[in-house]
Write a structure and sequence with these properties.
Number of domains: 2
CATH superfamily of the largest domain: Reverse transcriptase/Diguanylate cyclase domain
Strand order of the largest sheet: 6-7-3-8
Largest sheet: 4 strands, antiparallel
Low-confidence stretches: none
CATH architecture of the largest domain: 2-Layer Sandwich
Radius of gyration: 22 Å
Order of helices and strands: EEHHEEEHEEHEEEEHHHHEEE
Length: 297
């Protein structure tokens, strides 16, 4: 198969730098897909139960630390005003890049993931019950990354903290909370005027759905607007649902970590719009929510 240069663009990042993006849709269409799964964030964060110290590591241009096979480099070719270029490293936009990178990280940190650290692509969190335990685990992780030649970006790392931001959440010994820097945009979000704007809002809201009690029922009027044959009509019910989600997302409680040595309580509910369940445990006389699950009908 002959490969020709494809278009590219630069996207501004929050830190002022640019991310170089290439349109690899044609290449992805003929690529055999890698089925290596990415971790479910909700499941992996449960491993942080009991930890009091945390560090987060962010790899420097993670994908670009993975070298591309010489015979495959021509397939990544892209055009510029100055000629035709190809990548020597793994670029963004390849359909198998996430699976490839996740496998690399899990292999590099084998024996540490789950018990001493968690990994989601280029984001790593190291945790420990005491400062001494945490320091030792952090050293193990850094030694392993050094051994395989992976580099972190110092200015994006948080070391030896009691509270850290990780994957859109605030992590502490108390539990898991929404990240105010992410949910702040929700507070200022204007009512959607079209389907694409509504999809954007629901995409963010759904990421934090476990923090919203009765998410399925509250969001039902909004989801009905996304049905294939639905006409766009922003009703009073839609506005009420929109405002309710905004309020709950910006005032969400901290979800406690599960304690597998103690009894769990499960509350279930059903309506014409969806199903819901809440997993909780009692801490003395106080019941603390551990997890929520919702399913739209």
């Amino acid at each position: 198969m002959q490969f020709m240069g494809v278009p590219n663009s630069a996207v501004n990042k929050k830190d002022g730098s640019c991310r170089f993006c290439v349109d690899y849709r044609q290449l992805n269409n003929v690529t055999q897909k890698d089925s290596h799964p990415l971790p479910r964030i909700d499941d992996t964060l449960d491993a942080l139960s009991g930890a009091q110290w945390f560090s987060t590591l962010d790899l420097a241009s993670g994908y670009w630390q993975v070298e591309t096979e010489t015979r495959d480099r021509e397939k990544t070719a892209f055009t510029t005003p100055y000629g035709l270029y190809q990548f020597k490293v793994m670029p963004f936009g390849l359909c198998n890049a996430p699976a490839t990178f996740q496998r690399l990280m899990e292999t590099s940190l084998r024996g540490l993931v789950g018990s001493k650290c968690l990994v989601y692509l280029d984001d790593v969190i190291v945790f420990g019950r005491t400062a001494e335990e945490h320091t030792a685990r952090l050293q193990e992780v850094l030694d392993r990354l050094r051994k395989v030649g992976l580099k972190v970006k110092p200015e994006k790392c948080q070391l030896m903290k009691r509270k850290v931001a990780y994957l859109g959440h605030i992590i502490s010994e108390k539990g898991i909370a929404t990240d105010p820097s992410k949910t702040r945009a929700v507070k200022e979000w204007q009512a959607p005027s079209c389907v694409s704007e509504l999809r954007q809002f629901l995409g963010l809201a759904s990421y934090y759905r476990k923090f919203v009690n009765g998410f399925a029922s509250i969001a039902a009027p909004l989801h009905r607007l996304l049905e294939g044959d639905a006409d766009w009509k922003w009703t009073e019910d839609c506005q009420v649902a929109f405002d309710a989600l905004k309020h709950q997302l910006t005032s969400a409680p901290i979800l406690a970590y599960p304690d597998f040595r103690r009894r769990f309580l499960v509350d279930v509910d059903a309506s014409g719009d969806g199903l819901g369940a809440v997993l909780s445990q009692k801490n003395g006389s106080k019941e603390r929510v551990k997890e929520r699950a919702v399913k739209l009908l």
